[in-house]
């Protein structure tokens, strides 16, 4: 463990809140790396070298000042982490006056360093997990070091496995909020979950824990409702296919596809998708050309387009459609006749139903 200038400065900023004395932080080479007096930074401190060699408190008097390099009267204490002296904290002043604070400063400094080490290790662990998952979802075969890497991050799963991707439908989700949501996900759903970008979470579950899709969907729905009500966020979820081995690439890709195809604030299961999978493969330019052709046939009449949309949403039920549109049923029939006259398509025919379904599917994708 090496004391850095940044860590030394952090220690100075925290300890100076407790005492009104000059404080220095010295590294193992006896160089001052941080101080309440910036002019001392970078200077050699012979008293600190003595403290490091002896691994004990050193009281520095005016007599020491005359014979030792770079020192002032005060007290030096070793900073010890895991039984190793990594530096020194020095408090300038009358030794008798500053001694009561010395051990408190020493313990506080060591506590701050241990906290810094913990944060570094936690961040390293998080990066190692993210790197592992990034590689894992792209693997076409399981490499020889897979088990070694998984043990390093304390990761263990048993196939069959399923990937789920959770997206927060907001322009910006603060890192702290996303981290809190991840913590809640881990509490509510058993599996391996990690942050996946700035607005997403990736979840890998075992089939033995969630033997049915319905059970998993219910658990995800409970999580979704909790997040929506607690954080006022819309949450969209895509659930992939099952993988019978440790290779989860196809499951991950199908979860991505389900999330892309599904509605906002919905749980979309890839295995439930039928026509949508085919439609989603159609290039954007072709979709837009199709939309423009149908709308052109309707004479760009927005009320006719809206009528069709509500008509199909109500499964071609004329009475419910008229009620929702707040029009007389005869007016609805007139509009449907208009649509047939303009497009040469009977809205009740199988062919027209298919065309109009595709139209509204593409329009919905355009507005998502």
TrEMBL record:
InterPro entries xrefs: CdaR-like_regulators, Diacid_rec, PucR_C-HTH_dom, PucR_C-HTH_sf
Q: Which residue numbers delimit the Putative sugar diacid recognition domain?
A: 3-136
Domain PucR C-terminal helix-turn-helix, first and last residues per copy = 304-355
Q: In terms of domain of life, where is this protein from?
A: Bacteria
Q: Which Pfam families match?
A: Diacid_rec (PF05651), HTH_30 (PF13556)
**Xref: Gene3D superfamilies:** PucR C-terminal helix-turn-helix domain
Protein's UniProt name: Transcriptional regulator
Report the source organism. Ornithinibacillus bavariensis
């Amino acid at each position: 463990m090496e004391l850095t200038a940044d860590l030394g400065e952090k220690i100075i900023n925290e300890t100076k809140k407790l005492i009104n004395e000059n404080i220095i932080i010295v590294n193992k080479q006896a160089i001052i790396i941080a101080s309440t007096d910036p002019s001392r930074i970078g200077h050699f401190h012979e008293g600190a070298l003595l403290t490091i060699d002896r691994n004990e408190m050193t009281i520095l008097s005016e007599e020491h000042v005359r014979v030792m390099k770079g020192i002032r009267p005060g007290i030096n204490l070793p900073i010890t982490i895991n039984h190793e002296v990594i530096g020194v904290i020095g408090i300038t002043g009358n030794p008798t006056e500053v001694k009561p604070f010395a051990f408190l400063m020493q313990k506080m400094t060591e506590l701050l360093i241990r906290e810094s080490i913990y944060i570094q290790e936690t961040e390293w662990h998080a990066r190692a997990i993210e790197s592992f998952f990034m590689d894992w979802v792209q693997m076409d075969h399981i490499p020889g070091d897979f088990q070694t890497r998984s043990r390093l991050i304390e990761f263990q799963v048993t196939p069959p496995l399923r990937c789920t991707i959770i997206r927060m439908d907001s322009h910006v989700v603060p890192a702290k909020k996303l981290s809190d949501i991840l913590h809640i996900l881990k509490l509510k759903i058993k599996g391996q979950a990690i942050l996946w970008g700035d607005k997403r979470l990736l979840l890998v579950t075992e089939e033995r824990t969630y033997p049915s899709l319905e059970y998993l969907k219910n658990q995800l729905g409970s999580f979704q409702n909790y997040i929506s009500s607690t954080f006022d966020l819309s949450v969209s979820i895509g659930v992939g296919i099952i993988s019978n081995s440790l290779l989860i690439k196809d499951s991950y890709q199908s979860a991505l596809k389900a999330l892309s195809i599904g509605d906002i604030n919905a749980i979309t299961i890839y295995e439930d998708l039928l026509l949508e999978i085919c439609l989603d493969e159609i290039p954007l330019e072709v979709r837009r050309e199709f939309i423009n052709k149908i709308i052109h046939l309707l004479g760009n009449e927005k009320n006719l387009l809206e009528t069709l949309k509500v008509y199909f949403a109500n499964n071609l039920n004329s009475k419910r459609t008229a009620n929702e549109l707040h029009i007389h049923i005869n007016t609805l029939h007139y509009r449907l006749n208009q649509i047939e006259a303009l497009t040469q398509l009977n809205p009740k025919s199988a062919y027209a139903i298919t065309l109009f379904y595709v139209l509204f599917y593409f329009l919905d994708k355009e507005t998502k």
